[in-house]
Structures are given as C-alpha cells and as structure tokens.
Amino acid sequence: MPISEPPSDEGQFYTRVDDEQYDELSELNGQPIVHVSVWEEGLADSLIVPTPTQSDDEEAVAADIDLYLRDGVYFELYGTLCYADLEAAPLNNLGEIEKSLQHVVTMGGVLEEVAVDDEDGLVLVLAHRHQPLLYLQVGAWLLDEWEELPDPSAP
Question: Can you tell me the distance from the alpha carbon of 61 to that of 82, in angstroms, rounded to the nearest whole number?
Fold first, then answer.
C-alpha cells in the first residue's frame, strides 16, 4: 500500500508507517529505554502537527517526548497520546505523562513493540518483563542517533 511520506532526509516528520519503515523500526524491539524527556511547550503547540484521533469528550494531552534507547537511537515524538491501559482514556496532564515515562525508565523498561494503528500511525509499546506499562500513540516523529544523554539538570 503506497503511503506518501517525505524523503528520509534529516529533519523530516513522519506521520504514517509504511511496510519498509515498519520492518526497520521493528528492529528496535527489545531495546532498553535509558532516558526520556517531556517538553513543557511542544512543537505541537506552535505548529499544526496531526495528532491521533480522539473523541470530543476526552480531555487528553498530546505531549512532545524524546525517547532514548540504549543502542544510541532516539525518537522525537510529537503530538503523542499516552495510555496506561488501552481500555482507558489517555493520560490527561504533562506531569502524569512524565511521571509514567520516568517510571518506565526506573523499572528498566524496554521498547517492547513497534505497532501501527488503524490509520497507519506509529504506536510504541513500552513494557517491563513483557508486561505493557505504556502505549504511545504518536502524531509525528523523527528518528535520530545520540552520542551523549542530555543533562537532566539543564534547563
């Protein structure tokens, strides 16, 4: 199924996962998560970034998140809805999202699975010992490499 995506040049947002990307992203399954950052003011606040579909009665917060994996890869996630349970509403404030993500890191969580929703959007399943802790439904993303983790005390 052809999906129109920007070229894989640095700085290009992806909003849909095609078969080739899925195969590449799936190679990251099982990677430990070593650091996360939740942005107080995200790119989604200043740009029109597609966010995953939600009903009007949900008061969810779409967060911008940096997710660092042990192998030197990190995701810049934009307009991300975070679910502790797929049967419940998404988390509804940045503090709760940050606390949940930090818990995943503290527990030694991993990127358990790269998945795709009904609209070919990216979903990341974060787990500990194969038990899902968080589901991240991503509006847009970039993938890059890191050499040094950010300083948590930096503003």
Answer: 8
Cα–Cα dist 4/27, whole Å: 23
For 141, the token pair is: 């993303």
pLDDT tens, residue by residue, 12-47: 789 999 999 999 999 999 999 999 999 986 555 544
- Counting the structural domains of the chain, the total is 1
Domain range enclosing 52: 19-145
- Nearest one of 135, 118, 116 to 21, comparing CA atoms: 116
Q: How far is the C-alpha of 8 from the C-alpha of 21, rounded, in Å?
A: 10
User: Strands (DSSP E) along the chain, which ranges?
Assistant: 33-38, 63-69, 73-83, 110-116, 122-128, 131-137, 140-145
**Residue 136 β-bridge partners:** 82, 124
35 part of a folded domain: yes
